[in-house]
Design goal:
Layout lengths: L1 E6 L6 E6 L3 H14 L5 E7 L35 H8 L12 H14 L7 E6 L2 E7 L2 E6 L4 E4 L1 E4 L10 H4 L5 E2 L16 E5 L3 H13 L4 E6 L26 H17 L4 H8 L3 H7 L2 H19 L4 H12 L3 E5 L10 E4 L13 H8 L19 E3 L5 E7 L14 H16 L11
Parallel strand pairs: 2-3, 2-8, 3-4, 8-15, 9-13, 10-11, 10-13, 11-12
Antiparallel strand pairs: 1-4, 5-6, 6-7, 14-15
Length: about 450
């Protein structure tokens, strides 16, 4: 069950169990070890179902057409070393510039290698275990973490880095039986298709773009229609040097005021020869701060009326993927439609590309279900993720944050807004690592 064990000369240390070894788990572990070099020692145990910690589902694809959706210059594991990924690529003969869009499998290798090569400071330990966590139970001043194989680990701190669930359940298509593929990444999707199939892709976001490229590569004569409520595709990145703008402070007293100020800023920048993308990118580092200033009603209106258009502008596709998608559309291989324009009965396959369900969804993760049953977690007000406090501590059914129990990545969606991209997870990881490096007596005594 143990994948690796590295020792920096062990002494009494804060015991941290990281549940999940995808990108979130790798980033928080690497940052924990970095912070421990000058702070409180840590004994970190990462538990992951796959054999390698780092790639996870998001960066585990070996399809060369699956590219990152952000510039390489923005995707270092460490906030204070923005060139870390570029230097890693250079050392391995990978041609890259800050404006490159690397294959996802390359980035997965980077995450795995960073964790494998991060120095374990004196007094610290790093263990990696292969298996599934099925329960986290409070015990005394800490927790007992139980695995499906029967092993258990005592912890002062538990970090839920569980990643993204499968796509949202779309019950109206389940009556189609074998014609319906509920998870686009399930094994056997491509082998189940033929060149004569008419394929309906439910969703027009980045997942659909990847699935369409994959289907076209193996079945070039297969015709596809991608549909969503608005029929909007992600916008493409542009190939040019990054131009960070000074941040600005839009009005957050109302949602309409916030949107008005963003539009005004875009107009100002474009009048000076800039690009709207620069404005969106200048908002990203403090988007969660803006989100937290909005009242609950404004957040709900944003989710209902604005979120999809924000996602289209914010989560862009690599230029190569944009070119491929345009080629598919112009050749008639791929059509984009609104949901009210499509008759599902005309398709031999329907593939759910609607994006991941909320982390709080029952049934996809044993430890999430068990914590919910114990009353140790609850959905946030928008039911987009878990309820957490400003430090990322999980809030229980009584509204109290549990000391020592943290959530990372997509689990914070709704309490924060920008949570799933590498720069967002990196900020979360660095903040949590600094918090745990502080010399508090135990994880249960972390500041409220």
């Amino acid at each position: 069950m143990t994948m690796a064990d590295r020792d920096g000369g062990y002494a009494a240390a804060r015991r941290v169990v990281v549940v999940g070894g995808g990108a979130s788990g790798a980033l928080v572990t690497a940052n924990l070890l970095r912070s421990a070099a000058t702070g409180r020692a840590v004994d970190v145990r990462v538990i992951e179902r796959d054999g390698v910690v780092g790639p996870g589902l998001a960066y585990g694809s070996d399809d060369p057409r699956h590219l990152l959706n952000n510039y390489a210059g923005r995707l270092s594991v460490f906030e204070q070393e923005p060139d870390h990924l570029l230097q890693w690529c250079s050392a391995r003969g990978v041609r890259v510039s800050p404006q490159s869009f690397l294959p996802r499998h390359t980035y997965g290798q980077y995450l795995a290698d960073v964790l494998a090569s991060t120095e374990v400071p004196q007094g610290c330990r790093l263990h990696r275990f292969r298996g599934e966590v099925v329960d986290v139970e409070p015990q005394g001043d800490g927790f007992v973490v139980r695995m499906a194989c029967g092993w258990q680990h005592e912890a002062d701190v538990v970090v839920l880095a569980v990643g993204n669930p499968p796509p949202r359940r779309v019950t109206e298509y389940e009556v189609l039986g074998r014609r319906y593929i509920s998870d686009p990444w399930s094994p056997g999707l491509l082998s189940s298709l033929s060149d004569t199939d008419q394929v309906l892709l439910v969703g027009t976001g980045l997942t659909m773009i990847d699935v369409a490229a994959q289907i076209n590569a193996t079945h070039p004569r297969t015709r596809m229609v991608a549909m969503s409520r608005h029929g909007l595709l992600p916008t493409p990145h542009v190939r040019r040097p990054l131009r960070p703008l000074d941040s600005f402070q839009p009005d957050t007293s109302s949602l309409s005021g916030l949107l008005r100020d963003v539009r005004r800023r875009v107009a100002e920048v474009e009048e000076l020869g800039g690009n709207w993308r620069d404005v969106i990118d200048s908002i990203r580092p403090f988007a969660d701060e803006l989100w937290n200033r909005l009242d609950p009603q404004a957040r709900e209106r944003f989710v209902r009326h604005v979120a999809r258009r924000w996602e289209v502008l914010r989560h862009r596709m690599a230029p190569e993927m944009a070119d491929l998608t345009l080629d598919l559309i112009e050749s008639g291989t791929l059509q984009i439609a609104r949901a009210d324009e499509v008759d599902v009965s005309g398709f031999s396959r329907v593939v759910n590309c609607s994006g991941p369900a909320p982390v709080c969804t029952p049934g996809w993760n044993a430890v999430v279900d068990r914590l919910a049953a114990r009353g140790l977690l609850r959905p946030n007000a928008l039911e987009l993720g878990l309820d957490v406090d400003t430090q990322g501590r999980v809030v229980d059914v009584s509204g109290r944050a549990t000391p020592g129990l943290f959530a990372m990545g997509a689990a914070r969606r709704g309490t924060a807004w920008e949570v799933a991209a590498i720069p967002d997870i990196r900020r979360q990881a660095a903040s949590l690592a600094d918090l745990l490096a502080a010399d508090n007596a135990s994880g249960r005594a972390l500041p409220a």
